[in-house]
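Human: Cast an eye over this sequence-structure pair and say how the chain folds.
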Amino acid sequence: MISLQQAAANALATWLRARVGDAVVFPRWPEPNVKLPPKAISVLLAGPRIDEELDPIPIARRDLSSTRAEYTWRTRLCKQPMQLDVWAKSDAARDDLIARLDRALNASERESIGVPRADPVRNGVLLRLGDDWNGFADFLFDAPNPFDTPDAAQRCEYRATYRGHAWMDLTMRAESPRLVAATLRQRLHESDP
């Protein structure tokens, strides 16, 4: 199984792959034996998930029979610190990736999840979760922080880091009886039988 926060990172990695074209996007920190390609982006969980407990409320229902249904319950609002690491072999290539990320990380809901009447621009990007999780992850990143050192330039390693957060709902599915019928009686006065 995939954790909720990793499902959010996977959704972002999939979105970025479609938007940045020639860069390799890793949904986790690359393994030490992986040689970095000329352009690369890694999506990282940058700390523990922060949960805000909510009163559980049903947000969806799927009828299983005339007396049973599967409900989706919203139980927590989760905030996950995130980090993007951008690598390139030249300053110009890194700048190209940053320019494409500016657009990809601030895409309208029309582009990202197909809402037809959404605003044409947005701060952050809203993406559908996958990996057997329901709902969405809402991402917002700060401006990139480039790392420019003489040593990195000699190695042709140009890097930038984005710090931000993802917000998503923790939902649970559970089967429960359906309310089939409700019988109500009305009295005109308290003393009426």
Q: What stands out?
A: The first helix runs from residue 4 to 20. The radius of gyration is 23 Å.
